């Protein structure tokens, strides 16, 4: 049986990924901030739960030590842990900026850094870093979330060049808004004294809420595609774009260029 480490596996799409891999014959190493959060996974065949805080090097090393004592080989690491922050730049708070950077980008960096030596010693391994269509296109109120996902894309591609000689592959997976706890937990900036800011926030919230509600088939598609990629990893770095929304936005951004694409977004959102 192959073994996969999944970060942020206590809820949302991370939990669904863990269950799907376990049901398809993988040993799942589900990591989370607190074991209490992952009670629904405990006791399920092929799933083992571990405490791991992606923002803490000490926590990652402690979890790694425990995991490697229990499993001889790790075939795959899925960096899934992530948070959202929807804010205007001038209203952004240091605590929220630091939090999203620490989890969405530096968390990926630190987990990869910890498990590269494991993969190198094994002479094989695969990282799948969960990105977002936000890592390819830029939309209003996404200054912080989009920045971290762009960073994950760049980091992953650069790292892939370093690791190819060790038979370690790297992939990213991008998709749009899918019904899960993620959107419910997105932190938003408070209402301001600027009317245009408040109107724009309301518009973006409504657009994303409606789009998320329509994407009922997206989560199962993402999970199935993840398993396919995990079982047949590409040797060279590869981006996987999943779902109609993500593919459409990616194509439009590529074909139109940033100026025309920006005009399209302004007309769609700011009209």
- The residue-averaged pLDDT reads 89
Spatial order of the strands forming the largest sheet: 3-2-1-4-6-7-9
Number of helices: 8
Biggest sheet record: 7 strands, parallel
**SSE order in H/E notation?**
EHEEHEEHEHEHEHHEH
Structural class: alpha/beta
Beta-strand fraction estimate: 15-25%
Domain module count: 1
Report Rg.
19 Å
Q: Would you count the extended β strands for me?
A: 9
Report how far apart the termini are.
54 Å
Low-confidence stretches: none
The oligomeric state of the chains shown is single chain
- The gross shape turns out to be globular
Can you give the helix content as a percent range? 40-55%
Family: Belongs to the short-chain dehydrogenases/reductases (SDR) family.
GO molecular function: oxidoreductase activity
InterPro entries: NAD(P)-bd_dom_sf, SDR_fam, SDR_oxidoreductase
Keywords: Oxidoreductase
What does this entry look like structurally?
- This is NADP-dependent 3-hydroxy acid dehydrogenase YdfG.
- InterPro entries: NAD(P)-bd_dom_sf (IPR036291), SDR_fam (IPR002347), SDR_oxidoreductase (IPR051911).
- Keywords: Oxidoreductase.
- One of its GO terms (molecular function) is oxidoreductase activity.
- The mean pLDDT is about 90.
- The chain has one domain.
- The chain has eight helices and nine strands.
- It is about 50% helix and about 15% strand.
- The strands form two sheets. The chain has a seven-stranded parallel beta sheet with strand order 3-2-1-4-6-7-9, with helices on both faces. Strands 5-8 form a two-stranded parallel ribbon.
- By secondary structure, it is of the alpha/beta class.
- Helix 4 links the parallel strand 6 and strand 7.
């Amino acid at each position: 049986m192959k073994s996969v480490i999944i970060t942020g596996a206590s809820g949302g799409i991370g939990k669904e990924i863990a269950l799907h891999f376990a049901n398809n014959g993988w040993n799942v190493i589900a990591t989370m901030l607190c074991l209490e959060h992952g009670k629904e996974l405990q006791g399920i065949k092929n799933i083992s739960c571990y405490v791991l805080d992606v923002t803490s090097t000490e926590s990652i090393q402690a979890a790694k030590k425990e995991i490697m004592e229990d499993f001889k080989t790790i075939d795959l690491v899925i960096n899934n842990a992530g948070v959202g922050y929807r804010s205007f730049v001038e209203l952004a708070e240091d605590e929220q900026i630091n939090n999203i950077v620490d989890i969405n980008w530096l968390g990926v960096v630190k987990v990869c850094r910890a498990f590269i030596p494991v993969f190198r010693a094994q002479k094989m391994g695969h990282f799948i870093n969960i990105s977002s269509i936000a890592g390819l296109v830029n939309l209003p109120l996404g200054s912080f979330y989009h920045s971290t996902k762009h960073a994950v894309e760049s980091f992953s591609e650069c790292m892939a060049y370093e690791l190819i000689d060790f038979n370690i592959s790297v992939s990213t997976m991008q998709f749009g808004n899918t019904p899960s706890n993620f959107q419910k937990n997105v932190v938003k900036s408070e209402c301001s004294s600027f009317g245009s800011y408040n109107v724009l926030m309301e518009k973006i919230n409504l657009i994303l809420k409606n789009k998320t509600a329509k994407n009922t088939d997206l989560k199962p598609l993402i999970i199935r595609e993840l398993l396919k990629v995990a079982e047949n990893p590409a040797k060279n770095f590869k981006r996987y774009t999943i779902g109609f929304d993500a593919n459409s936005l990616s194509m439009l951004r590529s074909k139109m260029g940033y100026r025309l694409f920006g005009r399209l977004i302004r007309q769609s959102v700011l009209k």
